[in-house]
Amino acid sequence: MRGIAEELAGARRVRDLAAVINRAKPDLARVLASRFAPLEAKALTVKLLNILLARRHFDNRDSRLLSQPIGLIVDPSNTCQLACPGCVHSDSAAPLFVWPNATLAESAFAGLLKQYGTAAVGVYLSDYGEPLLNLRTPALIRMAKRRLITAGLSTSLSVRRFDAEAYVESGLDFMILSIDGATQSVYQRFRRNGDLSRVLGNVERLVAAKRQLGSATPVLSWNFLAFEHNRHEIGKAERMARELGVDRFRVVRPFDIGWDDPSIRAANVRPRVKRLTWKFADNWNPFPRELAADEIESAFDARFEAEEGTPPTSPGHTCHWLYKNLIMDAAGRIMPCCGAPGHDGGLVFARAGEVDPFNSPLYREARRHFTGAPAPDVHCSRCVWDHTTVNIGGREIRAYFRGAGRAYFNRGCLRLLSDW
Ligand code: SF4
């Protein structure tokens, strides 16, 4: 792998990068086939080479990429029944954003996976919507797992219709349970319209379904956003999580939402994670007989073709989102990061179904902007958000390859894939 990375680093033109990848594919797949089944080896080859290629494009600040997103963030439903302050669903903040109600069609998700699924290592099925409101979300998760993608989501669990067994059987790797309180009155200060007793009942059903089906997944993480109004309930919530059989308890520092509700303030509390159970979740390939063979074979057989000449080299600052993740909402809008689109529409970079949304004109303009090219109309030129912390980045890449073969991918290899 290091040899391939060195060859990529030495390639001066895009077509040289393409040639390195095309040459490396069969050799890498052969090496991987000594440990993995042939189709697994091909899928891993595509994912590994995609990361090396993405890293090379990132280092070079290229605007048109041969690589694909490493992580996909997808909203199965744009709707949410809660109205937490600071969110597009809050009554006071909603007018600032354009966030249409929509439910993701399986065909739209299938289309995205066909374009980018084989190369991706992770999919996170939640952005601003409540994913459990789409009753087909378990089917979407299974589609991702058939392409050997780690699948996770975050939910309030404050839903009436919830098929716990379907989520356990879907292959979902982890579920973040957003519960910021131990009593209804405290919980609902932030989780407006949330029903804590319903949430806790759904946690019980999930834990029971996991026990009944003998599954260590999804790993359940109770995430507690620590505010001044709820910090006194952190200890009680942790005890409840342990008693319920949740796997992890996490105290998280929230974003500032004072612009929406000045009475809700983040607490000065140290973020931490506590493991409550120690079960090993071996879930990299839960459906070996159902792998999306046609798509994996076709991604493996595809040859990279380069259209451009010498790409720009610029060691300056850029935004990691533009090279690593791609976001799609339930209405099929494609965005570069987790910022919510306002009325200028500037954050919608492409639409589902376009030929290569990750290289849409706006994506390329945005990448070019960071190389110093004038791009006054690109949203990124006015952005003050965090440009380095993406949803699916280095930590997730390391976890992915450890999950695939803990002993196979050594530290040096993981560093090469993830330290950028
Ligand atoms: S520069 Fe800002 S708006 Fe553009 S992708 Fe990065 S975080 Fe999003």
Q: Can you describe this structure?
A:
The two termini are 16 Å apart. The longest helix has 23 residues, at 38-60. Helix 4 runs parallel beside helix 5 and helix 13 runs antiparallel to helix 14. The protein has 14 helices and 10 strands. It has helices at 2-10, 14-32, 38-60, 106-116, 137-145, 164-169, 184-190, 196-213, 234-244, 293-301, 321-324, 361-369, 394-404, 411-418, and strands spanning 71-74, 122-124, 150-155, 174-178, 219-225, 248-252, 272-275, 325-328, 333-335, 350-351. Strands 7-6-5-4-3-2-1-8-9-10 form a 10-stranded mixed β-sheet, with helices on both faces. The model has no long low-confidence stretch (mean pLDDT 94). It is globular. It has a domain at 174-280. The chain is an alpha/beta fold and 420 residues long. Iron/sulfur cluster binds next to helix 11.
